[in-house]
Design a protein that fits this description.
Blueprint (H helix, E strand, L loop, with lengths): L1 H46 L4 H15 L3 E2 L14 E2 L3 H13 L3 H4 L257 H11 L80 H6 L17
Antiparallel strand pairs: 1-2
Helix pairs in contact: 1-2
């Protein structure tokens, strides 16, 4: 009996201790819930005051209140061996409030709002009205700011890694020293924004407006800029290796010394773009429009320029080793001093193209006509047997063809400014529309030559020739207007 009594007493003591321990933990849980509820009430009393100062003070509490952790309520049956669990009772309430409040916030309260240094990681603020808001040094990692209005916002030093900014208005926003790696900026408006040196690598910028945006030295390696509008953007020193720039609008863009190695620029619009010293090695520029672009000393090694438009493009000193320019429009393109070793130019239109000083080798694939033009301008008077040659629209300014045989040659539209043609046999040659400004024709045989439409030809030049019997002259030398 004594043993039984002692056992029962022991059980009673254990039961009381167990119940007491449970009650203690439950009371602690209830106190934590009350503290969380109180903190939530203080927060809402501030943000609901209807003035900017109180809202800013409340927002300084936002992250602490929403992340306030309490242990889950203990279960009586197993609280001693129950794995500790925590809960954040305020998180959903505050996050839902923030999305509703900032999307309908009045300008008098939310414009020029100071939210500097806040931790807003993962928050949903789609449609938020935060014009000129100060979000500098804030943590917006993985936040959803789609369709928000952040025009003129201060985002200096902010962390927007993986943030969703689809359709967001960010005109004149300042992102200096911000982090935008893997951010989704599809259809966002970043016109006139400050993104100098910002990391946008592997971001999504499809159809993004970047007009006049300062992207000097920015890192967009692997970024998708399909259809983006970069007209007038500052892109000096920008890093774009492996970026997708298909159909991108880069009219007049400044890409001086930009890194575009391996970038996909198929059908991109680069009219008058400034690409001096840019690295475009291995880039895809198929069917791109580079009309009047400036590519002085640019690196285009192994680049694909098939069917690209390079009309009047400056490629002086550019490196085009192994580049594919098949079928490209190269009319009046300046290749002076360019390296074309191993390049493919078959089917390309080189009418009026400047090939003086350009480097080619046995692996350079050049149509016979244009290889002959290269020989003439680079062999310095060594090529003289040119009877019947097709030199139509060739750029031959300043060449030496003294005593050359050009009998029956087609020089229609050729540029022969300052050319030395003394003693050349040009019997029956076609010089229609040729530019003969200051060309030396002393002693040349122009019998039967067609000079109709020639430019820059003077009576003095004709009189210096050996003969121009039966030659067809320009109207202005025939006494006709």
């Amino acid at each position: 009996m004594k043993t039984l009594a002692r056992s029962l007493l022991g059980l009673l003591v254990l039961s009381v201790a167990y119940t007491g321990g449970y009650a203690f933990l439950l009371a602690g849980h209830e106190r934590a819930v009350q503290r969380a509820t109180l903190q939530q009430a203080i927060f809402f009393s501030l943000v609901g005051a209807g003035n900017r100062g109180a809202l800013e003070t409340g927002m300084q509490m936002f992250d602490r209140v929403r992340r306030l952790e309490i242990q889950a309520a203990p279960r009586f049956v197993d609280f001693l061996w129950q794995a500790p669990e925590t809960d954040t009772p305020n998180a959903r309430v505050l996050e839902d409030w923030a999305e509703r409040f900032f999307s309908s916030c009045e300008a008098t309260v939310c414009q020029n709002l100071s939210l500097s240094g806040l931790n807003l990681q993962g928050i949903r603020l789609s449609g938020a009205r935060l014009v000129r808001a100060d979000l500098s040094a804030s943590n917006l990692q993985a936040a959803d700011l789609s369709e928000a209005d952040l025009s003129e916002a201060d985002l200096r030093g902010a962390n927007l890694t993986g943030a969703r900014l689809v359709g967001t208005r960010l005109r004149y926003a300042n992102f200096l020293d911000a982090q935008l790696t893997q951010a989704d900026l599809e259809r966002a408006n970043l016109s006139d924004a400050e993104l100098h040196g910002v990391n946008l690598s592997h971001g999504n910028l499809q159809w993004t407006k970047l007009n006049r945006t300062n992207l000097t030295g920015a890192n967009l390696a692997g970024a998708n800029l399909y259809g983006a509008d970069l007209r007038g953007a500052k892109l000096e020193g920008i890093q774009l290796p492996g970026a997708i720039l298909v159909g991108v609008d880069l009219i007049g863009a400044g890409l001086i010394a930009a890194d575009l190695q391996g970038a996909d620029l198929e059908e991109a619009d680069l009219i008058e773009a400034r690409l001096r010293g840019a690295n475009l090695a291995g880039a895809n520029l198929k069917a791109a429009n580079l009309h009047k672009a400036h590519l002085f000393q640019a690196n285009l090694s192994q680049a694909t320029l098939v069917s690209a438009d390079l009309f009047q493009t400056n490629l002086v000193g550019a490196t085009l080793v192994g580049a594919d320019l098949s079928g490209a429009e190269l009319k009046q393109t300046d290749f002076s001093g360019a390296n074309l070793q191993g390049a493919k130019l078959t089917g390309a239109n080189l009418a009026g193209a400047e090939l003086s000083g350009a480097k080619i080798d046995t692996h350079t694939r050049l149509d016979e006509k244009w290889r002959l033009v290269w020989d003439i301008v680079n062999e310095k008077g060594k090529v003289t047997h040119l009877a019947g040659a097709n030199l139509r629209d060739a750029a031959l300014a300043g060449v030496t063809l003294e005593g050359a045989d050009l009998n029956g040659a087609d020089l229609s539209g050729a540029i022969l400014r300052y050319a030395i043609l003394t003693g050349a046999d040009m019997t029956g040659s076609s010089l229609q529309r040729a530019d003969l400004y200051e060309a030396d024709l002393a002693g040349a045989n122009l019998a039967g030559a067609d000079l109709s439409g020639a430019q820059g030809l003077t009576r003095e030049q004709l009189e210096s020739a050996q003969t121009y019997t039966a030659a067809r002259l320009p109207d202005y030398l025939n006494g006709r207007k």
